[in-house]
Specification:
This protein is about 40% helix and about 15% strand. With about 425 residues, it is an alpha/beta fold. It has two domains: about 10-270, UDP-N-acetylmuramoyl-L-alanine:D-glutamate ligase (3-Layer(aba) Sandwich), CATH 3.40.1190.10; about 280-410, Protein-Tyrosine Phosphatase, Chain A (Alpha-Beta Complex). Strands 4-3-2-5-1-6-7-8 form an eight-stranded mixed β-sheet, sandwiched between helices. It has a six-stranded mixed β-sheet with strand order 9-10-14-11-12-13, sandwiched between helices. Strand 9 and strand 10 form a beta hairpin. Helix 2 (about 30-35) packs across helix 4, helix 3 packs across helix 10 and helix 11 runs parallel beside helix 12.
Length: about 425
Amino acid sequence: MPIATADMADLADLLARRAVFGMRLGLERMHLLLRLLDEPQRSFRAIHVVGTNGKTSTTRFAQAMLSAQGLVAAAYTSPHVTGFGERVAVDGRPAPDDVLAAAVASVEEAAAQVDRMSDQPLTQFEVLTAAAFVAFRAAAVEAAVIEAGLGGRHDATNVLAAPVVALTNVGIDHVEQLGSTRAAIAAEKLAVVVAGADLVAGDADAEIAPVISTLASHAGSITLLPPGADVADAPPLAAAGRFQRANLALALAACERFCGDGFDRPAALAAAATVVVPGRLQIVGLDPLVVLDGAHNPHGAAALAAEVADLAAGRAVVGVIATLSDKDVAGVLDAIAPVLTSAVATTSASPRALAPAELAAALRARGVETTVEPSAARALERARSAAGQHGVVLVCGSLTLLEDLADAVHLTGAR
């Protein structure tokens, strides 16, 4: 099916309009949309990546590994930091604006029909997911690594019937949609495993193991990776952080299962070593050291805090922090506050952003000297000044904050 022509102005307009529809779980609208588009998700085989943290990194690693096997391999990730094209990449290159705009325009023709037939309009994420599938079909993609957006069971990506599913880890997040226990959340995420699919799990502790065991009757195979799964033969990674070794191991195991005999492990690891993940422990400045990380839940914030403590090595750490009001703000701040010398509380463009004054009060209650600066760009400059030449600036709390600052820190989208 040919893709209609469109430009970046069309893309911005279409996606901005869809953003007002927010987030709705359920697959009926998505299945109808894809039928109207002649089922583009069936044009490629997929690895479906689910979990709480590490999904984007795992997805990018796996895509690089598949490309290294000679496949035309794509990655679909969310949310983005540097622009919508970052979400839709083929062989490590973000989709050009005109290509993504054309795919979205093509989907919108069908989406308008779905909107008329449904009492709930399609959301931005549903349209983008379908557009990614359309773009992948047009690019003759052979293998795609698809990151779930929220949960799994009712997520718009759960239309793949993927032969391999990779579970990164399970933490407490999105409790209103997924449940309040790790076991309940795991069940929602693992509902994407279809009969005969292979599951590779990086998180299989005592609370999660019973959920995984229920899949044994219909899964093709289940691979449980031990903590610190061996990737000792991997070269140094461009993606910083010790936690990336677990993501690398998971991606490797998933790709080995996906490709079967003849998988070239050295080539896969060499390709993954070049991957840069925007907004994940990403160093974007020196003197002072400026580090960006999108950690927005307690599990991610704890991993970030451990890395920052090592990076700082006793130097002052000034935070530039914005959070979303519907997140576990207390849990995030409990994890990150101990490594901060001071902070600047700011906000992001998200309508769900927590008021900076409220965030500042929460930081001060945890012993962090905090000032308020609603402008993210000015907050970054304040923090740089406070850190001085030899300090560290940590920008964290929300991926939306990182997106707002992408131009200011010259972020790029992929390897």
